[in-house]
Amino acid sequence: MTADAHMNTKSAAMAASPAIEVRGMSLAIEGRSILHDVTFSLDRGEFLCICGPNGAGKTMLLKAILGLGKPTLGSVTLFGANPGEGRKKIGYVPQRKNFDRMFPARVVEVIAAHLSGAWPLMVTSAARDKAAAALRIVGGEHLLDKELRDLSGGELQRAFLARALVADPEMLVLDEPMAGVDAKGIVDITSLLDGLTKQRRMTVVMITHSLSVVEHCATKVLFMENGTVMAWGNPAQILHDPRIRETAFTGHDHEHAVTSGKGEY
Amino acid sequence: MMEFLSEILAQDFMVRALTGGALVAIACAMLGVLVFQRGITFVGDGLAHSMFGAAGIMALLNAMIGTTTGSPADSSSGTYGAFFIWAALPLNVLVGFAMAWVRRTGKLRGDAAIGILFPIMFAAGVLALALRRNSGAPPLNMEALLFGSVLGMTQADLLITAGGAVLIAVIALTWGRRIAYAAFDPDLAAMSGVRVALAEYALFGLCAAVVAFSMRLAGVVLVSSLLAIPAGAASLWRGSYGWQLLFASVFAATSVKVGLVLAYWIDVPSGAMIVLTMGVLFFLAMVTRALLVPDARR
After folding, report:
1. Which of A88, A94, A113 sits opposite B187 (nearest CB)?
2. What is the homologous superfamily of the domain A17-262 according to CATH?
3. CA distance A249 to A243
4. Shortest CA distance to B262 belongs to which of B55, B26, B57, B14?
5. Contact B92, B212 (CB under 8 A)
6. CB < 8 Å to A109, chain B
7. Are the Cβ atoms of A92 and B191 closer than 8 angstroms?
8. What's residue A262's pLDDT?
9. A220 - beta bridge partners?
10. Given B181, B190, B238, which is nearest A119 (Cβ)?
């Protein structure tokens, strides 16, 4: 086989490979087991909701998939490549906004930094236009020149969503994106995500405690408890189990408080 | 006044000091902004003290080998052995990497790794200098090492200092923007393709190098101020990261020039006058901010 043919076979294999493939992955931090023997495979274009009680290891699972946490056992591939390589195709919205509040960051700079992979000294007009376009998608045009530390929880989520979308990702990875967002924001974000998966065939992976989001958007559900996958399947199968409904969707976090407080979105 | 300034500019060593000093100050200020954002302001102090250790070890080696390059005995011209400084530079960079390594592998928070390593290096320096003295080698000019001495800056020193400072400033403006991104949020930076661990090592290594390049100007005790004060003054204002780099650079270069001229005028160590000038300017900046922005939220 020639080198070219080999490359073609390789890229064809990457194009056909599932969005996420996790095999027998375990992860421990300082001897404490966080994830145990997680295996699943997610096709492109699916909308996966990861559910489970607080402390089940959902965020750590996302981080391991993205290569931000290193598995002690097993393997993860993203679009057929290792996570460090595959994550370039991913837009990520973290749960806790851990960014340094003292850092002089404006929304346009945070988005431009994602485009160039370095903090901008000055934002180019091309990057500014892209940032504005991404913010328009999430209904946050007015946030472009605001400082990050001045934003409310909901505004921050929109800014981070725009950041995640700006590089035309193949997959969105969202860790409780509705946390701290008001009822209208939840409706907006949900319909936005729904549109992205249906129109652009974008793959979405999302941690959520919101039953209504799972019912409306998910094509696959992964239910976790104590670091292991307890159930995997389509929403109808998973939501059929009253114990899962009870455990996964009564977590006392912001997101649930907002959704339950306002009723159905 | 004009006469006084032209008298200064007629002195070769003062021209060298003003040129090298301003360049080093700008390099320090730029790294200082990164260090400030990373929340490890103490790194300047740590690496300056470890630089004392590295210079002490090199001075001992120098006495043992018996080379006369940059002999420390030549205190009549204010020299304390540039040789030690340049020889100690790579050793100090290694200490910087070790700090980053201890910080990452030991999962130590904030300044702990720095606080653990620098006294060890400082103690090694004290030991090395004592052994050097016992061996009968001529004593070092300790005051110059501790507080800076621009008098001894030769043309070769200036070239090395200026070259190093320009290189570090260019790195801070280009590759350093990845370090800045990692300082903002390591996970987000990693997702945008920044190699976060490399950025951390690079920051410590660059700080170790810039401290070495600043030794002549400010000495062990005062060099950390070049990293800390301009960046602190820049952070008083709500400006972008790029604007903070600019503000800190202008602040530092101005302070160094004014401080050097004052030091020459009253005939006192340059490092002390530079730091005092920066201190005065910092408090002026604070007062100005309080007057201009009465409801400044931090």
Report:
1. A94
2. P-loop containing nucleotide triphosphate hydrolases (3.40.50.300)
3. 10
4. B14
5. yes
6. 240-241
7. yes
8. 29
9. A48
10. B181
* A58–chain B Cβ distance below 8 A for any pair: no
Residues from chain A that touch B195, judged by Cβ atoms under 8 A, are none
Interface of B with A (CB under 8 A): 37, 39, 173, 175, 177-178, 180-181, 183-185, 187-194, 235, 238-245
Q: What phi and psi values does residue A49 have, to the nearest 5 degrees?
A: -105, 125
Give me the residue from B180, B191, B239 closest to A66, CB to CB: B191
* DSSP state string for B73-135: T-GGGT---HHHHHHHHHHHHHHHHHHHHHHHHTT--TTHHHHHHHHHHHHHHHHHHHHHHHT
Cα end-to-end span (Å), chain B: 41
* DSSP assigned state of A119: -
All domains in chain B, ordered by first residue: 11-292 (1.10.3470.10)
Residue B268 confidence (pLDDT) above 90: no
Which residues in chain B have Cβ-Cβ distances shorter than 8 Å to A118?
Answer: 175, 177-178, 180-181, 194
Chain A residue at shortest CA distance from B242: A121
More confident site: B3 or A108: A108
Residues A192, A137 contacting (CB under 8 angstroms): yes
Q: Report chain A residues whose CB lies below 8 A from the CB of B242.
A: 120-122
| Residues in chain B closer than 8 A to A98 (CB atoms) | 185, 187
Contact B191 A113 (CB under 8 A): no
Contact criterion met (CB below 8 Å) for A168 and A191: no
pLDDT band for position B81 (50/70/90)?
low
Chains A, B: CB pairs < 8 Å: 82
d(CA B80, CA B57): 14
Q: Which of A9-13, A208-212, B138-142 has the highest mean pLDDT?
A: A208-212
Residue type at B231 in one-letter notation: A
Whether the pTM exceeds 0.80: the reply is yes
What is the enclosing helix (H) or strand (E) of A92?
Answer: strand A90-93
Contact call for residues A121 and B177 (beta carbons, < 8 A): yes
CA distance A152 to A182: 11
User: CB–CB of A108/A116 below 8 Å?
Assistant: no
